[in-house]
TrEMBL record:
The keyword DNA-binding does not apply. The keyword Cell inner membrane does not apply. Keywords: ATP-binding, Kinase, Lectin, Nucleotide-binding, Receptor, Transferase. This is L-type lectin-domain containing receptor kinase S.4-like protein. InterPro entries: CR_Ser/Thr_kinase (IPR052059), Kinase-like_dom_sf (IPR011009). One of its GO terms (molecular function) is carbohydrate binding. Gene3D superfamilies: Transferase(Phosphotransferase) domain 1. It comes from Carex littledalei.
Length: 138
C-alpha cells in the first residue's frame, strides 16, 4: 500500500500502512524502549488517524478528540476501517486558501548551500512559504 518512495512518504501514510498491517506500535517513539501503556498509545494513534482524514467533515471535533483521549476507552472510539482512498473534493481547505493569493504573497526564494565534498559546495535555490522555518534562513 506504500504510496511513495520512502524518502517521499508522508508520515500519515506510514502510520496507515502500519495500522492496516496490525503493527501500529511500530510508530511509537523507539526512545520509549517499549515502556508505554499499549492501550493509551493505540488510542493516540487511532485518534491521530481520525484527525488526519482528508475530508474535514469526517474528522472528529476537538471536543470529541479531548473526550477520546481523556476517557481512554477503545470501545468509545468509532471504527476506523482502512486508509482513505480516492479523490476528495471539499470546499475551503488550506490549499484553496493558499492558492487564492498571488504566489508572491506566500512564496519567496530561498537558497541553501550544501557541502558536496571537502572543498566543494553547491547552492540550491527553491521557493518556500513565509510560514516555513526556512523562510527566515539567510
Amino acid at each position: 500500500m506504500m504510496k511513495a518512495v520512502p524518502e517521499e512518504m508522508v508520515l500519515v501514510d506510514l502510520v496507515w500502512e502500519r495500522w492496516a498491517q496490525g503493527n501500529w506500535s511500530d510508530v511509537v517513539d523507539y526512545r520509549l524502549e517499549g515502556e508505554f501503556d499499549r492501550e493509551e498509545a493505540q488510542i493516540a494513534v487511532r485518534v491521530g488517524l481520525m484527525c488526519s482524514h482528508p475530508v474535514a467533515s469526517s474528522r472528529p471535533t476537538m471536543r470529541e478528540v479531548v473526550r477520546y483521549l481523556e476517557e481512554g476507552d477503545m470501545s468509545d472510539l468509532p471504527e476506523l476501517g482502512g486508509p482513505p482512498v480516492g479523490e476528495y473534493e471539499e470546499q475551503g481547505g488550506f490549499d484553496d486558501f493558499m492558492h487564492s493569493y498571488p504566489s508572491s504573497s506566500f512564496e519567496k526564494a530561498a537558497s541553501i548551500q550544501l557541502a558536496v565534498g571537502p572543498d566543494e559546495a553547491r547552492t540550491e535555490a527553491f521557493l518556500c512559504s513565509p510560514l516555513s522555518p526556512l523562510s527566515n534562513a539567510r
